[in-house]
Amino acid sequence: MTLASAPFLVFLCALLLVYWPLMHRRTAPAALILIATAILLARWHPAYIVILPAAASCDFLIGRTLGRTRRPAARRLLLAASVTLNLGLMLSVKYLPFFAGAWASLRGAPPPEWRWVLPLGLSFYAFQSLTYTIDVYRGDMAPSRSLLAYITSATFFPTLLAGPITRLAGLLPQFSAEGRALKPDDGGRALFRIGLGLAKKFLIADYLAENLVNRVFDSPNLYSGFEVLIAVYAYAIQIYYDFSGYTDIAIGSATLLGIRLPENFNRPYLARNLPDFWRRWHITLSTWLRDYLFFSLPGLRSKWKFPAYLNLIVTMVLGGLWHGPSWTFVIWGALHGAGLAAYRLDETMRGKAPPRFPLLSAIVTFHFVCFTWLFFRAASVSAAIQTLERIASLTVSTANLTAPILVVLAAAAALHVAPKALAARLQGWFVAAPSYAQALVLAALLTSLRFMPVTGSAPFIYTRF
């Protein structure tokens, strides 16, 4: 069950009908959300019903112990236990089968069958949970007093699949607060975000994936170099609208429950440089890597600049590996790390003056990002190289670039560069409209999605991670 599926929307509506009448109860709202999370976890795999609450309970106890312990060695040991628990959970689910298969291949043995492999990589859960123990260790937040509130926030179902990675320092107080109420304007904004996310997913991301991107990346030699290049651009658009669409639905769903989640995107392809891109793309991951990884690496206070540049590369390589055990993700992260280091070096040499040609700078940044997306999307390094070679062939044909594909690409690009005030105005109109008008708009959207020429809803890209 994905957030863009009809069963989830029905499930969310049923949850709301029970949730808000119980809001005056002290623990009932958090308990109901935890039950809802358990139901969804059981649909993905029953083992999650045991794994995640057990892991969250361990982090809760570690946090409580950190709050009572002052000895530095004991505090470091407790933090190490939490890091080992969360990263070990993620590694065992995502990486152990890969490494075991690679080891078997080196020995010339057949790869083992892993019947226990689980569908969720738990990357988002692990990073979100680590914000709690690290913040408590650093003294940036007090330990939670409520096990129920902690487990509910750590496993909050809208963020569990693909974020946003929400710091529990901001999420926990919302589950502990009493007297929350859903204002009509908040409800309208939430429905607008959910509708926007569905439109992004089905009308743009899935359409481009099925009608161009997947076909070209599966068999690049069947297409001209120009068509492959357009497919790379199309993938850049697809992954943005797919991931930001998920975020819209997650934020809208949480808002309907009276919970605020952080924003995760800010028109990233308008970035004027690579650091600016990472301030706009997957904001909660980039800030997590900065605050919890980059600033924790040694050498930042050295009078030599080289350790800081190296740490940028190390941080982004680990960020690439966070997406999965593949050399393509390592290369993707290394390219971004090298790009960030090169920009930092250039900035140190020329000062922090704004670019003389901001439009050209934005175009160069966008094409660098598209180049790295090619490795992110490719099934293997050899497949990425094959795709690059096809682009370099400079062959030109537009036989597979149909009018609907070009229209969707143009519309998606136009929406991305449109002023933010336009989106705010559209949302304001929707919120100000009477409830029956809002219902008609959503019904029209759902009807249009029903007749889209795609074969069902593809999983969100980032739910694989």
Indicate the topology.
Blueprint: H1 6-19, H2 28-44, H3 48-68, H4 72-94, H5 96-106, H6 123-138, H7 147-154, H8 157-160, H9 168-176, H10 184-218, H11 225-256, H12 274-278, H13 283-293, H14 306-323, H15 327-350, H16 358-377, H17 381-392, H18 403-417, H19 420-432, H20 435-450
Describe this structure in words.
The protein contains 20 helices and no strands. The longest helix has 35 residues, at 184-218. The chain has a domain at 24-96 and 118-176. The mean pLDDT is 88. The radius of gyration is 23 Å and the shape is globular. The protein starts with 5 loop residues before the first helix and ends in a 15-residue tail after the last helix. The chain has 465 residues and is mainly alpha-helical. Helix 2 (28-44) crosses helix 7 (147-154), helix 4 runs antiparallel to helix 6 (123-138) and helix 10 packs across helix 19.
Which features does this protein show?
465 residues; 20 helices; single chain; mainly alpha; 0% strand
For the sheet with most strands, the description reads: none
Rg, please? Answer: 23 Å
Helix run count: 20
Q: What does the average pLDDT come to?
A: 88
Shape descriptor reads globular
- The share of residues in extended strands comes to under 5%
Unreliable residue runs: none
What's the N-to-C terminus distance?
16 Å
